[in-house]
Amino acid sequence: MGGTPPDLESLRLLTLVAELGSLGQAAERMRISQPAASKRLTMLERRLGLTLVDRSSRGSALTTEGKAVCQWSDRVLSEMESLMAGVAALRADQDDDLRLASSMTLAEHFVPRWIGALRQRSPDVRVSLRVTNSEQAAALAAGGQIGVGFIEAPTVPPGLCSRQVGADRLVVVVAPDHPWVRRRRPIEPAELARTPLIVREPGSGTRETLERILAGIDVEPARPLMVLDSNAAMRAAVAAGVGPAVLSVITVREDLAEGRVREVPVAGVNLNRRLRAVWARGSRPAGAAELLLGIASQRLPDVDTAA
Amino acid sequence: MGGTPPDLESLRLLTLVAELGSLGQAAERMRISQPAASKRLTMLERRLGLTLVDRSSRGSALTTEGKAVCQWSDRVLSEMESLMAGVAALRADQDDDLRLASSMTLAEHFVPRWIGALRQRSPDVRVSLRVTNSEQAAALAAGGQIGVGFIEAPTVPPGLCSRQVGADRLVVVVAPDHPWVRRRRPIEPAELARTPLIVREPGSGTRETLERILAGIDVEPARPLMVLDSNAAMRAAVAAGVGPAVLSVITVREDLAEGRVREVPVAGVNLNRRLRAVWARGSRPAGAAELLLGIASQRLPDVDTAA
DNA sequence: CCCGCCCATAACCGCAGATTATTACGTCAT
DNA sequence: ATGACGTAATAATCTGCGGTTATGGGCGGG
User: Fold this and answer.
1) pLDDT tens string for chain B (307 positions)?
2) Contact B107/A68, CB-based, under 8 Å?
3) Angstroms from B155 CA to nearest CA on chain A
4) Using CA atoms, how far apart are residues B194 and B30, in angstroms rounded to an integer?
5) Residues near chain C (nucleic strand), Cβ < 7 A?
């Protein structure tokens, strides 16, 4: 009764049944035969141990439970679509209409979604994406190799125009059993600077922002406890109790919500930062690039920037 | 070259390789043989058209592209985990330690995640969930049939204690080609009240909140244009141009971000509302219920409540 | 130098999931 | 009534994905 995760095709089928109100039509939309769809759905219900649809002789409607599962499925499928959009962009490395580069954080959470939205509206544009760090992305934008770059650096490098596409905040995180969790008052920046931390590699926007903050303090910063080149690795290291780290709240939102790591307040420094789209001064984005910028800034991501 | 979506097992394998640094160890963790893992990964790379891992004779490390895909995969897998947690809770309808009921909106976006976090920490608690509307959930809580209910009603029904677990805002949304999109000034509440709208069924928190707002205006409200009992159906109807609707910003965030629907500002009414956990007065949540409440309110969801 | 760990390839096989053909059930129009 | 058209379920069959075991080939450390 452990419950094996269902495959995405079945979930997609469920959403189609919800949308079209008929199992056969859903089957047609998926380019499979009607019996196949029927069996799949039965199989899905057996796997989940739930009755998802009411079959009547003039159509099928979702049960209450079916609706709930359908909504959760939508989210899974949506993430998968983002993944596919990202992959398509990673793959098309030439012969493309719009070249992008992005820092890790932005690439992880936003860029694939924007690309997906762009492709929905103009499906024929070829988009390519390079995932690097903020420094590299800015350099590529300045050099004209890409149309638009997405960076999270504290300042806009010279020679670039920019537009804000989101907001972010750095947080100090530790494992739930770390002594800092029990503190009653925020820690002081000086103490943070003296503590060996898990940090990203030089050139990353996160690292650079951190250094800029600690540079303002009259304390010799401690040597890094560990240098990692991916946010996921850092999250795992923090949760495993290796030590404290400073990370974008976006990347650890889930870990925080589920209690795998804890946030430690810091006194008196502004850890907010802006996420920006950048492009070479003089070459105003046009066509696909313009459209993408519109999508990206049309609705700024909701981020908790409050203390 | 359309690109078939990969199966979740392969994505999981990728994340395990990233975590463990070795294909063989990842295979072991997944309870499959090493050759199977090797073949799967090769297959995945062929499917996506990308080189994801650098195989060396003393381990495997992800390429830059591999890291990006791995992060996107994490999100897909995380949503699937939520789905499974939700399904497990829907299924266990008796013989359980903690009974929950939730409105649609909360059930869609938050409750499965909280349940998942709860199960991670104490895997042996049996949780059950009923998905209804706010009115029903509150009634179940008041009647003692459930331990905790999650509602989005504007007021706390009598006889219940509550605790805020999130914030939300209602928005007026229309299709991108609706005349309201072109307006330069916010629409007046009276005009909204006079317009036939797509609404949820009576008893839903969304409907109730809307009626409470429109009741404050000295205008006879128009009859509904269409009554639907699921947020997804409303989103589809709005996007299809059926008419305007008033929905939780949470449910339409993606549609807004990707331009499928547009938000129409409303003048002079407060559309914010609180998402609450409720329980019967007198029976303070204990045990699993207490833990879940802690998880839910430990970190309030980041929601854009600003105008 | 050989033994360990890593990964890839080969040959085999079982089962999930597709197909077509057929049955059964309701609704509606004639 | 009755047949036409929609719905979905069942039966029989087959293909191929994804698993297994067995084996071979680099590379590093004791």
Assistant:
1) 567 899 999 999 999 998 888 898 999 899 998 999 999 999 999 999 999 998 888 888 888 899 999 999 999 999 999 999 999 999 876 678 899 999 988 999 999 999 998 988 888 899 999 998 888 999 999 998 999 999 988 788 899 999 999 888 999 999 999 999 999 889 999 899 999 999 887 777 788 888 888 888 888 888 888 887 777 778 888 998 889 999 999 889 888 877 889 999 998 888 888 999 999 988 888 788 998 998 888 755 444 433 3
2) yes
3) 24
4) 59
5) A 7, 9, 31-33, 35-36, 39-40, 43, 57-58; B 22-25, 34-35, 38-39, 41-42, 55, 57-60
